[in-house]
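Structure ticket #2291
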Amino acid sequence: MRIGLQIAKLEYGYGVKIWQSAMEYAKQMQAELIIFPGRNLNTPHGFDYQYNSIFRFMNKENLDALILVSTLVTNYVNKSDMLDFCSQFKGIPLVSLGLKLPGIPSVIIDNRSGIRDIVKHMIEVHNAKNIAFIRGPALNWEANERYEAYCEEIMAHGIPFNENLIGQGDFTFQSVEPVLDGILSKNKIIPDAFIFSNDEMAIEGIKILQKKGIIIPEMTSVTGFDDISEAANLITPLTTIEQQQEQMSIVALNLIKDLVDGKQVNDITILPTKAVIRSTCGCKLQCLEEANAIDLVIFEKVKLGNKNILDPVVSSLESNGFSRFLTIQRKESIQKTIQGLIEISKSEENSHEELKHSSISEFEEILKRDLIEGNNPDDWKFIFHAIITTIENLNNKQIDINIFRSLSRSYLMIINEYAFLYQRVIDSKKRETNVILRDILNRLFSITHTKNLAQVIHEQLPRIGIKTFFLSLFDREFTHERLSPWEVPDKIRFIAGMIDGSMILDLDKTNMVYDSNLIFPSQSTVEFSSRTLTVLPLFFRDVQYGTIVFEMPNFDGFIYETLATQISTILLFNSKEKVEEKLRQAMQILETTNIQLSELSLKDELTGLYNRRGFIQLASQQLYLNKQTGKSCLIIFGDIDNLKTINDTYGHKEGDYTIRRIAEILKQAFREIDIISRFGGDEFTILAINAGKAQIPVFNDRITELLANENKISTKPYKLSISLGFSVRESHSGVGLEDLIREADINQYNNKMLRKKSNII
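Resolution: structure written out below.
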């Protein structure tokens, strides 16, 4: 079965969790999934409308069924226009996500309860009275429901409606700045809270408010709606409302299967929403709230006399939105872990250590398997919390509770270590992919003919895991203007393609012309069971060139959209008209892309400082210049004190916060001309240009003072501290960079030991 899924951007926003979970579940169904990342109908933003050329492929010749994420195309059209849009899919089993459409099975969310919960939270927990609300598009049904729920809840609390606190957005980041300017200009005081109708606007709102000097959450609170992936990854994580996007995908795919099988299905399926309380409203992190919720669910299960430990653990995780942790293999691992814990806690004292060693070794194997399979070991923190609470609430007198708790702490420490390792693996893979992608983009940029394009993408795409693709171009590109009818040429020419790493045709025989409403040439029809593909248009501004279809081996949507953009740029080069002007535009695009990718290669993602590679590259150049000009310089090696203790005690998010704050302090302490890097983990290196021995106490005192000021105003339960070591490269010296770093590192270590003996750290 081949199922189509219409979404929006692959790499950012509301649709990401939907396509990623649909991809996973379609594999389990052994169905082929084809993703169509279009944009809003009648979108006013730039040339976004050009993406919608791919909607022509959503037809019964290409698909057995289709899922429309209707909320992602309806921001600028009314319901009647949406129904007209749906009418072109007659004859295809159809499901709508997000919008109730007559005659079409629809999966929607409970917008009202989500907004009412968050408004109630702001009023009752944070005593907010002046609550600004930034609406979604005026024509959008979900946006209007959210606005109505806001009005209902403030009135239920006796707060009068104030039109000056309402702003009209459109669910996009572009709409936010004028809306906030309008609200702030109409109100003498800053509102107590800003509730945005979706996360994309909320995240942009945070940036704009902070630029205006409005600190969040100290001066005002911010909340969103959707719980997109980026919401939890902000420096101050976003309080928002969780939609069950993974569950929406699963429900929609099950409905599609039933429709294809000729079964009756419900017209409407309503999924609940849940407030996700994080930091931008001024509360604790959500993980604490989730842990408390797990406690309550487990306690109820135990009270009912359910003595099967696995059942209440699984039930509590599922009811709190953690079903994604519970694969069949994970359930088996949870059962094995529970049995190991209980056996040790019930065992004779003389066999504790042997059993403990064996149990921990087995648990490490479980975590290693998680790493190999790409699962995040950090999931086990919630799983383990559920296990611990269940066993303790059972109050089984055969279990030595002290031994059980001690063993649990050992397990949690192992989970932390493996979670940290997992993040390092992910970061390493991401860096490696970015380096390869940049190299591929540079190779593509050197292409001057379409035939060379086919050859290069055949050679290069497998390097980033893309072993199946189809590239097709119109014989003559065509111009399409906003709001004009689509007049796509009837035929398109197959240029290049690959299936599982094997070329479909020799390059000299790529003259296959086929119907432009088909995704693939009919001669190359292949079964793609359990695979996911995406179709992307190739265009530049208002000119359409063709399409490219990629199989999607991983979840990084940035890769596919970047490749499509770069290939479009190459096709622009081959256009015969306005060559010089188009060349200039394309070079600007490539320069921007290369700068971004270069920064990814030389910069540390967490701090924005140079990474080890960037430091060695720039510092080596500077040492050479210093020798030529007869100038001395300093190498400083810094190591954060007690970072492991902070990670183990307060979690890796606090560890990341510590690393970022130390980085900011180092930026303040040194000059713009100095080269500052996060050398790795908790280590930093700095090259202070044109500085010598006399400047060592100056930098030392400056950093000490900045740390003291930071710790004085900080509300954290720990102090920030860093140990430093210095080495001097005199103007006449030939000492290499590695030796200077090694000397500074040794001096840093000696200073750290001396400070420990003096109880300074």
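Closing remark: The mean pLDDT is 82.
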